[in-house]
Write a structure and sequence with these properties.
mainly beta, 10-stranded parallel beta sheet, 6-stranded parallel beta sheet, 16 strands, about 10% helix
Length: about 160
């Protein structure tokens, strides 16, 4: 006899998780199975080029090219350029920000660099130092990050 009931290892069956709960997608993530995460306290030096959503709560010293959604948390620091389809920034960016669709600057965000985006949402308290271009100009944004970087370096040499 078990201390808190009649279940023993032989007859114990855990309650199954409802299929509707297990398969409910997170509305803030394009594809919950492909979210890349860089945690707080982690520093990465170098460029990141991804086709999947990415969330950064740590520090990236390099450029970030994302063909999906970028989320920079409150503790995130990006020292480099950001190029993405959509982005939600709560942390700090020191570099150029290019977002082809929607850029959302949260009240804790700080941007030191130019912004080029299709649509822009700025919460009260967000800060940015630089110029901002919106609308049709953003169609010039290319999301082929590493290829563009190689072409820019080759042009300089």
């Amino acid at each position: 006899m078990a201390l808190f009931g009649n279940n023993t290892k032989e007859n114990f069956t855990p309650n199954p998780v409802s299929a509707s709960v297990a398969e409910t997608p997170n509305p803030y993530v394009s594809n919950p199975n492909t979210m890349n995460v860089i945690g707080k306290g982690t520093t990465i030096t170098g460029d990141i080029d991804t086709s999947n959503d990415i969330r950064i709560d740590g520090k990236l010293e390099g450029n970030l090219f994302c063909k999906a959604k970028v989320i920079l948390g409150n503790s995130a620091i990006l020292e480099g350029n950001l190029s993405a389809v959509t982005a939600e920034i709560s942390g700090e960016v020191v570099g150029k920000v290019e977002v082809s669709e929607l850029l959302n600057l949260k009240n804790t965000s700080t941007i030191h660099g130019d912004i080029n985006t299709g649509k822009l949402v700025i919460e009260a308290g967000a800060k940015f130092n630089g110029s901002c271009k919106m609308g049709a100009v953003s169609k010039e944004i290319s999301l082929n990050g590493s290829e563009n970087m190689k072409k820019q370096v080759a042009a300089l040499v």
